[in-house]
Design brief:
By secondary structure, the protein is an alpha/beta fold. It has two domains: 3-59, Winged helix-like DNA-binding domain superfamily/Winged helix DNA-binding domain (Arc Repressor Mutant, subunit A, Orthogonal Bundle), CATH 1.10.10; 66-250, Rossmann fold (3-Layer(aba) Sandwich). Helix content is 37%, strand content 22%. Helix 6 (100-108) links the parallel strand 4 and strand 5 (115-119). The radius of gyration is 19 Å and the shape is elongated.
Length: 251
Amino acid sequence: MLTTHRKQAILATLKQDGQVIAKALSETFGVSEDTIRRDLRELAADGLLQRVHGGALPSSPAVADFSQRKHISTTAKSAIARKAAELILPGQVAILDGGTTCVELARHLPMTLQATVVTHSPSVAVELVDHPGIEVVLIGGRLFKHSIVTVGAAAIEAIGHIRADIYFMGVTGVHPVAGLSTGDLEEAYIKRALAARAAEIVVLASSEKINAASAYVIAEAKAANTIVVERETPKALTKPLAALGIHILRA
C-alpha cells in the first residue's frame, strides 16, 4: 500500500473509532511500528491528528486564533453559552475563561444579575462594561494575542488571591483518557491555576472538541464537575465522560 493511501486509511479509522493504536495499525497494514509512527508524525505535522502515547487521537480545530474561532460552530457556541449563563447565581464570584464561547456567555448574562466576574480576557471584560449589576475583576499580565488573554507570572500571582464559586473553562479538547487540553502551554498553566481557585468547574465544549486532544494538558477529564455540550452531541461521545461521574448538561 502506498504511503498516501495508508495515511488516508489511518484518518478514516481515526474518524470511525475516535482513536488509533500504532501496534494495531502496523498489524493491519503489514508494516513496522516505526513506519506507522512516521505516518502519525507527518499527519500530526499537517494538523490532522494529535499524537499520544501508543497512537493518536483526533486533533481539535479550535486551536486556531481568536478571530478564526469566532466563525467555528457559532450556533452551538451561542446555545452552550446561554445554558451556561443559567448556572451563575446571584452574589457568586464566577471566573470566565478566555475564548469565543466565554465571550458569548458574557453576552447572555441577564441584566438583572448581581455578581462578580473574574476574567483574564479583555474581550469578556469589555462585553460586561455596560452590565449594571456585575463587578468585573480583570486579571493583568502579558497579552497573548493569539487568544486575546493575559498570561505569565503576573497573571498567575493575581489568580492566587481569588476564591471563586464557579469557573467556566474553555478548552480545545475533552477526552476521557487524554483529559482536558489546549493548544498553548502558557494558557494551560493559567487554566490550571484558575481551576485550583474555584469550587466548581464547568467546561464549555462544542461537539468538535469532544473526544479530541491538543498538545497541552490542563487536567484529567474528571476535574470537570459539569460539561456543557450542544443538544445534538451524540451520546456515544458523552457516555465515556458521564461514566467518570461528570454531569453532562445539554444546551
